[in-house]
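Q: What structure does this chain adopt?
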Amino acid sequence: MTGLFITFEGGDGTGKSTQSELLGEWFTNQGREVVFTREPGGTDLGLELREIVLHSRNHIAPRAEALLYAADRAHNIKTVVRPALARGAVVIQDRYLDSSVAYQGAGRVLDPVEVRNLSLWATEGLLPDFTVVLDLAPAVGRERLDAANKRFDRLESEALEFHTRVRDSYLELAAAEPARFIVVDATLDRDVIRDAILARLNER
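A:
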């Protein structure tokens, strides 16, 4: 049995955690081992890096931010994801290299090709088998976070213009790789979203 690497992408407040859990339940019911992880923060080292990149009160230069995410990614892939895939598990991950292309590339206005290549070097070229983008207008995502009384991190606190660039980048990435990506309207009912994801997975 071969492993399967599935990533969830999208702006803040899109429901990635909910859909990850629903998809994990479905695979568990099929008798598969499921491993959940996230970036940043999927390892002990990652938790330390997460605190820096998301909650540091100090300014972080855009290139330094991209490098910190790449460091977290390299460690997570080496110690969590690749071992799980090797034993045939389904890995469901909240954010991966497409997040860096969207947030550090488009959001921070760095070269998206350079950002992507940095992540590919850090992970020895590992790409997901399947990537779900939960698409939502940034203003709606902000309303959801406000309603949840969530403490905003460094990226969530950015202006709507920043998050609009991020959203546009995700849609461009999905359009460029339609075989890997599925884009789902995140305003739909959670079960409708789950069924759309499962239908696309079953096609493959």
